[in-house]
């Protein structure tokens, strides 16, 4: 198996549904033989009030210091980056500029869509069921990638999690996302956390909720840069057997991956 050298989609206990501090992930990364580790916990938000799944604005300082302390402590062992995973919401340039002043990179994780002003009553992207909803997901990803705020597009095919059927609409959304990633020159993620989830029954049989093979066939057509992330919420899962399964599945599909993310 090819060696796995870095992970840029890593969570932290501050989001309240992950375990472990930066040091726990750093120690595990060193044990796994990683050269780089990017911390990218769920960003605080002023518009999405789901504090069960993200840090509060005033908690960012704790997160930031926790990463800084480990950068100092482990500088001769591993390169550590400070990032955040965040949703895109239109007309919030100030918010993204604020985040980009505080961290080195943003991962786009579009966990919600909303049809309302002020992003009220958000709909989970894990549970999109209608054509209208997945079309909106595709539109938001395209808009997000145009902004250049993001360094990595996490789980681009998350919309298939609830929608499941690989039909004309799903294909059109995949093309829209891949075209936008190509234009913005942003790598797409092959998410190992999808391998940890239960498979879903589709008309084509049992499938992983994501990453979907069909989606990555389109990624191949566009010759996009692909990177595998652990998206671990527990330190022990940083380089677990599901990550290895993801590496093998991507190789089997004939898709090359990049080892490192270019972070300015
Ligand atoms: Zn999470
Ligand atoms: Zn994540």
Task: Give an account of the 3D structure.
Helices cover 38% and strands 16% of the residues. The strands form four sheets. A five-stranded parallel sheet has the order 1-2-3-4-7. Strands 5-6 form a two-stranded antiparallel sheet. The chain has a single domain (6-252), classed as Metal-dependent hydrolases (TIM Barrel, Alpha-Beta Barrel), CATH 3.20.20. Helix 4 packs parallel to helix 6. The protein contains nine helices and eleven strands. The model has no long low-confidence stretch (mean pLDDT 96). It binds zinc ion (2 copies). The site of one zinc ion has 5 residues, from loops.
Brief digest:
This protein has a single domain (6-252), classed as Metal-dependent hydrolases (TIM Barrel), CATH 3.20.20.140. Helix content is 38%, strand content 16%.
Which structural traits does this protein have?
264 residues, alpha/beta, TIM Barrel, five-stranded parallel β-sheet, two-stranded antiparallel ribbon, 9 helices, 38% helix, globular, binds zinc ion
The CATH class label is Alpha Beta
SSE pattern, N- to C-terminal = EHEHEHEEEHEHHEHEEHEH
Approximately how much beta-strand content do the residues carry?
15-25%
What is the total tally of β strands?
11
What distance separates the N and C termini?
29 Å
**Unreliable stretches, pLDDT < 50, 5 or more residues?**
none
Stated plainly, the CATH topology is called TIM Barrel
* Molecules bound to protein: zinc ion
Overall radius of gyration: 17 Å
Total number of helical segments?
9
Give the overall shape. globular
Structural class: alpha/beta
């Amino acid at each position: 198996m090819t060696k796995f050298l870095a992970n840029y989609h890593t969570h932290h206990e501050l989001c309240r549904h992950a375990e472990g501090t930066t040091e726990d992930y750093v120690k595990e990364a060193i044990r796994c033989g990683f050269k780089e580790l990017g911390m990218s916990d769920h960003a605080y938000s002023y518009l999405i009030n789901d504090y069960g799944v993200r840090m509060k604005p005033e908690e960012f300082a704790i997160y930031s210091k926790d990463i800084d302390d480990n950068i100092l402590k482990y500088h001769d062992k591993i390169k550590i980056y400070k990032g955040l995973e965040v949703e895109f919401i239109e007309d919030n340039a100030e918010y993204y500029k604020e985040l980009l002043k505080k961290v080195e990179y943003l991962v786009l994780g579009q966990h919600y869509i909303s049809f309302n002003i002020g992003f009220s009553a958000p709909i989970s992207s894990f549970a999109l069921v209608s054509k209208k909803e997945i079309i909106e997901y595709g539109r938001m990803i395209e808009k997000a990638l145009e902004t250049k705020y993001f360094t990595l597009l996490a789980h681009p095919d998350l919309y298939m999690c609830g929608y499941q059927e690989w039909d004309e609409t799903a294909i059109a959304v995949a093309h829209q996302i891949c075209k936008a990633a190509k234009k913005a020159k942003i790598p797409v993620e092959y998410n190992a956390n999808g391998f940890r989830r239960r498979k879903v029954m589709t008309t084509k049989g049992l499938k992983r909720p994501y990453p979907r093979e069909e989606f990555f066939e389109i990624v191949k057509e566009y010759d996009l840069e692909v990177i595998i992330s652990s998206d671990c919420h527990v330190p022990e899962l940083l380089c677990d057997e599901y990550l290895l399964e993801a590496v093998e599945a991507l190789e089997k599909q004939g898709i090359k991956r990049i080892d490192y993310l270019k972070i300015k």
